[in-house]
Design brief:
It contains nine helices and no strands. By secondary structure, it is mainly alpha-helical. This is Hemerythrin domain-containing protein. It comes from Streptomyces prasinus.
Length: about 220
């Protein structure tokens, strides 16, 4: 972890933590898909969470964040165009992952995937994980300096609110649990500080739910 992260801009902190959740969650799906004890429902929930959140994340970058950066730094257009092309390639991998049938043939208990379905899911998950990790390795050296230099706190706050308001409500508790794993308590609190009080009051229950679901995905206690 960057030792200067605590002094970094909120834009970089939030983006770094979001990226780390993507790395963690895509790797977790690969591992869970190869673990026969993990139920179909748990795999489907994580898969659906990843598909909608990864798509939403790069769509908000392409449509809202890149134009903000380009207004202040038109010289980075080529680099951002290259990143958007990578987003399109990631969409192909996400389409494949989304198309994996998780409601087909199952074991006798009706909860676990059969071997063929599990193998297909794992292969598609590997492709998404590798695409995400390669993309972030290219994106972060471009994006982090741009966020530090060209995006004001007010611009970031407005962008972040738009992102939150449009995030699909698919297994959102997993994002909370993953953020707790990749960030410090102070970093995570800085993301949640402006939540409406009714939503913030649900955080303990959402954290408990995320912890339980993540244990299932990791095969802990099974």
């Amino acid at each position: 972890m960057d030792m200067n992260a605590g002094r970094d801009s909120q834009a970089v902190v939030e983006t770094r933590l979001t990226h780390e959740t993507h790395r963690l969650a895509t790797g977790l799906l690969v591992d869970a898909a190869g673990r026969p004890s993990v139920p179909r429902q748990a795999l489907a929930q994580l898969r659906d969470f990843l598909v909608v959140n990864l798509r939403h994340h790069h769509e908000t970058e392409d449509e809202w964040l890149w134009p903000l950066i380009l207004t202040a730094a038109p010289d980075v257009k080529r680099a951002l165009d290259d990143l958007s092309e990578e987003h399109e390639r990631l969409d192909i991998a996400l389409d494949r992952l989304a198309d994996i049938g998780l409601t087909g043939a199952k074991d006798h208990d009706g909860e676990n995937l059969d071997e063929d379905d599990r193998h297909a899911l794992r292969e598609a998950a590997v492709a998404v994980r590798d695409s995400v990790c390669d993309h972030l390795a290219h994106e972060e050296p471009v994006l982090f300096p741009a966020l530090r230099t060209h995006i004001t706190p007010a611009q970031w706050a407005e962008f972040a609110q738009r992102v939150i308001a449009t995030t699909p409500p698919v297994a959102g508790h997993l994002m909370i649990g993953l953020l707790d794993e990749v960030g410090t308590p102070a970093e995570v609190e800085s993301i949640f500080v402006n939540m409406p009080p009714p939503v913030k009051s649900l955080l303990p229950a959402l954290r408990d739910q995320a912890a339980a679901d993540l244990r299932v995905l990791r095969g802990i206690g099974s």
